[in-house]
Amino acid sequence: MKSLSKASKQLIQLHVNGETHDAVVRSADTLLIALREQLGLTGAKRACENGDCGACTVLVNGKSSHSCLSLAVEVVNQPITTIEGLLDSPVSKAFVDNWAIQCGYCTPGFIVNCHSLITTHPNADDQLVEEWLQSNICRCTGYEEIREAVHTLLASGQKENE
Amino acid sequence: MIAFDFNYIKPTTAKEASKLFLNAKQEGYKAMFYSGGTEIITLGRVNRLQTDMVIDLKGIQECNVLEISDNELIIGSAVSLNEITHSKLFPLLGKTVQRIADHTSRNKITIGGNLNSELIYKEGILPLLAADAKVKLAKGKEQRIIPLEAVFNKQWKLDEGEFLVQILLDKGYLDLPHKALKKTRISKVGYPVVSAAALVKDNQIRIAFSGVCQYPFRSIELESVLNDTKVPIMERVGTALRHLPEDIVDDIQGTKAYRTFVLRNVLKDMLEELELTK
Ligand SMILES: Cc1cc2nc3c(=O)[nH]c(=O)nc-3n(C[C@H](O)[C@H](O)[C@H](O)COP(=O)(O)OP(=O)(O)OC[C@H]3O[C@@H](n4cnc5c(N)ncnc54)[C@H](O)[C@@H]3O)c2cc1C
Ligand code: FES
Ligand code: FES
């Protein structure tokens, strides 16, 4: 049997929040691990690591993505946005204003996903909001306030457009 | 964390992808085709699979096609479930895959990955079975196009190193009257207790199921019972239940009795709605 050289680690570049970062990763490392352990970006949270809870949500190429379900090596040439790149965003403000935070563990994932929803579909109806928000779980069950935060934003955006 | 190391390779042609797989095999290593990667990552994390190499199919142009060309809809195996839904090119498929996992996961899960999943569900295959889809497969330098049902019967019969490149659908099936119904146990997101996708062609209902048996299936005998409109609907449903290819699944997601109850209602709803379109 010839030996397959399985490089245990490699240097890659990740384009996160408008900056290019070097990261030393194993091919088996998920994007979530690389963000948290290599780049020190701990906003994306580690929870189920199974695609079920949405706590690790980031944007890859502008689309919501569970960072626990991507390999870091898979997204080297793609723009990534994490919660750290959405500081002072309208969605963050709406979450604060609507008391849509309890323990806060799910909050970064919700904010990133809601940001993507609102920018992609500024006229989203209730059905679409429900479909998108089903991707995130809040253990503190603050769903009503989160829904209100999204609806407030949608309503203000729609008013601006009128 | 995934505890084992593997090589990640992203070829740009189908030929290269298959060759990488076969070469690894020849040298005694295990390679896996990698599409959305969500199943490989989640099963790898809990040590339910091991591999020495993953071959990412997303770099292959043919695997990313989603278009109508001549009289066929061509869907690349690496196209995401959300892309299929948003394209609206085959509404029955769009609606069926829209109920797989959650919206964020559907940005990553691909149709090729769903169809080749280790799980029993593979819900994306239901509309393809109902619409007599063909598949383009690649192995080494060779590519072949064959009817889906010739390579998928309970499970895939792919050669070693062979993989799904594209799905091909006759345009005539895309806009037929149709219905997709998925019943889950509790929340809307979840594995199916029963999932069914049906369309009506030439006045006949064609229907495929997931969650009922240990594999997705379409049964011609069952369809002929359902299409016998001289018999009252509930009688047809009762007879249809005797034409399942095997025993109904009995597991933690749903007991056999519960799945039977749900299946009965799904069939009734399907027949009532689709017969109005005839
Ligand atoms: C949160 C979540 C919820 C889910 N819910 C559902 C559900 O409700 N219904 C349902 O049906 N499924 C569901 N699934 C399962 C999902 O559809 C499968 O895990 C699917 O395999 C993921 O697709 P992928 O593209 O990420 O696959 P990958 O991880 O890339 O591959 C999966 C398998 O398919 C093989 N493969 C991939 N592409 C090809 C190809 N082109 N040719 C040959 N083999 C190939 C791989 O080698 C691997 O064995 C869910 C998954 C998640 C993460
Ligand atoms: S940690 Fe990624 S979805 Fe839960
Ligand atoms: S605020 Fe605690 S998990 Fe959502």
Automatic annotation (TrEMBL), chain A:
Cited InterPro entries: 2Fe-2S-bd (IPR002888), 2Fe-2S-bd_dom_sf (IPR036884), 2Fe-2S_ferredoxin-like_sf (IPR036010), 2Fe-2S_ferredoxin-type (IPR001041), 2Fe2S_fd_BS (IPR006058), Beta-grasp_dom_sf (IPR012675), Diverse_Oxidoreductases (IPR051452)
Entry annotated with the keyword Magnesium: no
Alphabetical list of Gene3D superfamilies matching this protein: 3.10.20.30, [2Fe-2S]-binding domain
Xref: Pfam families: Fer2 (PF00111), Fer2_2 (PF01799)
Name of this chain's protein: (2Fe-2S)-binding protein
PROSITE patterns reported in the protein's UniProt record: 2FE2S_FER_1 (PS00197), 2FE2S_FER_2 (PS51085)
Domain 2Fe-2S ferredoxin-type stretches: 10-86
Source organism (scientific name): Sporosarcina jeotgali
TrEMBL record, chain B:
Record's keyword annotation contains Oxidoreductase: yes
InterPro entries for the chain: CO_DH_flav_C (IPR005107), CO_DH_flav_C_dom_sf (IPR036683), Diverse_Substr_Oxidored (IPR051312), FAD-bd_PCMH (IPR016166), FAD-bd_PCMH-like_sf (IPR036318), FAD-bd_PCMH_sub1 (IPR016167), FAD-bd_PCMH_sub2 (IPR016169), Mopterin_DH_FAD-bd (IPR002346)
Keywords from the UniProt entry: FAD, Flavoprotein, Oxidoreductase
Start and end residues of each FAD-binding PCMH-type domain: 1-174
A Pfam family that the UniProt record links to this protein: CO_deh_flav_C
Name this polypeptide is given: FAD binding domain-containing protein
